[in-house]
Amino acid sequence: MATELPISTENCIVEQEGHVLIVTLNRPEAKNAFSPEMLLGLYKAWRLLDEDDNLRCAILTANGDTFCAGMDLKAGAEQRSTQEFMEVMGKVPNVHWQALLRENRPCKPLILAVEGYALAGGTEILQGTDIRVAAEDAIFGVTEVARGLYPMSGSTIRLRKQIPYCLAAEILLLGEHVTAQQALDFGLINRIVPKGQTLAEAKKIAEKICANGPLAVKAVTTSLRQHTEHLSEDEAMLKSDELAGPVFASKDAKEGMRAFKEKRPAVFTGE
Predict the structure, then answer these.
(1) N or C: which end of the chain has fewer CB within 10 A?
(2) Which ranges does the record mark as transmembrane (predicted)?
């Protein structure tokens, strides 16, 4: 049973279910377009995920029939920020980029559950997640160029690294919609499920992640996040080894090997 946490905001519900953080965009009347309240909730959720050792992964989903339409073009520059959001931004100037997973991504797995349209910022935040589940009628697209805008959340950098360059160029330069099947074929998402089943599928994935050694999962996620193409292979290998050492020296590693020998499920404690 999920418990709502006090860091929730009007436009972003943050819940905990066991070791899983469930983050739900909650502005369906505006197609879950970003608002200061939504960004504030996302920022708080990702920082909690990083800081709380009891949390092992997170699911990002949304209420309503649209996952996220990105920036609120109707409100535009007139959209008012709440006092709390402005106070946080005064201390953390990149709070919006952290919220949208462009910067300082949490070093724990992020699972995406998309129902309906995920356009512009909706597909940009997707690129900050690790495992992506979409409904069969989901629609994606980085559509900024069609509005004379630029995708500021990192798609020109990340998308070409996550899928073939020519497909990334097609998505970014045409600004057209991409079906769930096309997204799967491109390698942009992991799997397609029937409409209404994405959250249930994401929870199944989260359950499998939570059954694994949390120290090992965090170390692998950290390596995926940090050891990117700017490092040579030799440099990346050395940094990977630095992460591996504490994992192999942990109680969890001993428990995992003991459980394998005794043919039973391992009981990991994160130690």
Answers:
(1) N
(2) none
Catalytic-residue membership of 115:
no
Quick: pLDDT tens for 92-104. Answer: 999 999 999 999 9
Q: For residue 114, give the DSSP letter.
A: E
The catalytic position among 17, 144, 201, 255 is 144
Task: Show the tokens assigned to 172.
Answer: 């970014």
Burial classification of residue 83, based on how many CB atoms lie within 10 Å of its CB (0-12 exposed, 13-18 middle, 19 or more buried): exposed
Among 37, 115, 124, 201, the active-site one is: 124
Which residue is listed with tokens 């193409």? Answer: 229
Closest CA to 22 of 210, 237, 267: 210
- Determine the length of the chain: 271
Q: How far, CA to CA in Å, does 137 sit from each of 63, 64, 160, 196?
A: 16, 14, 24, 10
84 is catalytic: no
Residue 26, both tokens: 């909650």
Residue in 91, 146, 88, 86 with CA at minimum distance from that of residue 120:
146
Question: Full-prediction pTM beyond 0.90?
Answer: yes
